[in-house]
């Protein structure tokens, strides 16, 4: 069941931990059903107090519980995706293991539609060449390898479309002052443009299994990942209670 979820039902991946703990608990209980009577029997036959055997079992249980509850290791410095002050969008850190793994399986995208949102913002819709390889969660982002004036310029943009639309993916870049890529995308990008992208990446995403009620806070172009979440909730007809403050 865990293998099936990991391979084909990734939107239920949050249940993997619960399944793992359940399998462990059932296995431990089945072993304990035979182990505890055996230990008690040996204690009685050797004259050792029963509390010693029970204390041994409780010590083992406590040790396992400590291992299960140990805190997650902190994220190494420099592994986050941080804004680049001199440019626009976000720059992905190549040292992240997940980025290194996915670069070998990049996506080929072709610009098929351009919608003007405001005087300095456009939504670009890219067709996905291989829809079977694209699976994102609402709120994640892609890292694009833009080819501008003969130079490869990597930038990361949040997905603003719903992940239920596997045939295409949309981003909504806003033109910023001295923004090299954002100016290109808003002023020079035309239908037919091809680009290579890797991902999706990011731990900021909506999970309908865990998030029954959410509050979204956004300003400016920070609304883009939340638009993906809202469209996903609408497409799936979920009963999630949502408050958006923009």
Please, could you describe this protein's structure?
- The chain is an alpha+beta fold.
- The chain folds into two domains: 2-68, no CATH class; 82-245, Translation factors (Elongation Factor Tu (Ef-tu), domain 3, Beta Barrel).
- The chain is 34% helix and 25% strand.
- It has six helices and ten strands; from the N terminus they run αααββαβββββαββαβ.
- The protein has helices spanning 2-8, 15-46, 50-68, 97-102, 180-187, 224-235; strands spanning 82-83, 90-91, 107-118, 121-128, 141-148, 151-158, 168-171, 194-201, 213-217, 241-245.
- The strands form three sheets. Strands 6-5-8-3-4-7 form a six-stranded antiparallel beta sheet.
- Helix 2 packs antiparallel against helix 3 (50-68).
- It is elongated.
- The protein starts with a helix and ends with a strand.
- Residues 73-104 have low confidence and may be disordered.
The backbone outline, from C-alpha atoms, is elongated
What is the makeup of the main sheet?
Answer: 6 strands, antiparallel
Q: Output the CATH homologous superfamily of the largest domain.
A: Translation factors
In total, the number of domains comes to 2
Question: What structural class do helix, strand and pairing data support?
Answer: alpha+beta
Determine the strand fraction and express it as a percent band: 25-35%
According to DSSP, the number of beta strands is: 10
| CATH class designation of the largest domain | Mainly Beta
Supply the number of helical segments.
Answer: 6
Based on CA atoms alone, the radius of gyration comes out at 25 Å
CATH architecture of the largest domain: Beta Barrel
Low-confidence stretches: 73-104
Average residue-wise pLDDT: 78
Biggest sheet strand order reads 6-5-8-3-4-7
Order of helices and strands: HHHEEHEEEEEHEEHE
Q: State the end-to-end distance.
A: 40 Å
The helix content is 25-40%
CATH topology of the largest domain: Elongation Factor Tu (Ef-tu), domain 3
